[in-house]
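User: My collaborator sent over this chain with a note saying "see what the structure looks like." That's all I know about it. Can you take a look?
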Amino acid sequence: MKAKRDVDVPDLSGKVAVVTGASDGIGLGIAVRLARAGAEVVLPVRNPAKGERALAAIAAQAPRAVASTRELDLASLASVERLGNALLTEGRPVHLFMANAGVMTPPERTLTADGFELQFGTNHLGHMALIGRVLPLLMMGQARVTTMSSSAAAQGTAAWDVFARAEQYRAIRSYSASKLAQLMFALELDRRSKKLGWGVSSNAAHPGTTYSNLYASGPNLGRSKPSPIDGIFRRLSKLGVFVQPVDAGLLPALHAAVSVDAEGGRYYGPDGLGQFTGSATELKLPRRANVLADAVTLWDASEAMTGVVFPTRSSLANVQDGGIFH
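Assistant: Without extra context I'll predict from the sequence alone. Here is the result:
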């Protein structure tokens, strides 16, 4: 696939797009682009004030947009369940789902409300649980699901139980594991959809090194003094060295989500040196993401951890007839 200098977003009128982590950064940039193309955008957010600011930003750049927020804390499976139930009650098909929200490298080991390591619990488990709960709506919309992974996934390892619960903690090691888990889940979701006839397409993307709030919020979590990493990346972004702005960093995920030539089961990212920056292109999958036995182990373990079990073929009749299963 040739690299894309920008992404041609088709007319999305009548489509519903759910974008997590859209209160700022890449998620907000993607939400704006989708809204400009006519999609109704739903922003699940943890911070209501930031959510309102995001809605104002969307309205300023897409005055005719239909946008709304919902409450969601991906670090709480109870919050995930509440949002899933609310969307199911609304009963509207979802056509695009962007699993974009995340946390990166908090300096100290932090747990989710359910006792999982924060990065693995938020980045992977929270999103998997939400996608599982709203799968009927994704099926009704014949949705494309795009999961935001990271180039760090290539360094991740498949010791899922260790990263979910272990006392020992290395920030970047756990982050890499969570991003490998997200990539493997995205690929396995596409495989299962094809096998079971869900009609949902699933792929993944990574943004390269894109300067956003992610470089401040995670590394500064629990610190009394700001982490130096935010300042370093801010300076590199201004210099245009190995770091790109949000408008460029969102392109691989936007391409994966809406382009007619983007496909399920594929992985997209920047085409530049070391995949730090550049235009959207299809990437070769990291070796560790291609181990099917690990993907099945991850899937089964994640269902057990979250209590959210995806349906089998025999569970789908109600959805295919226009109803919703629970």
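A starting point for your reply to your collaborator: Strands lie at 16-19, 40-45, 67-71, 96-99, 144-148, 201-205, 267-270, 280-282.
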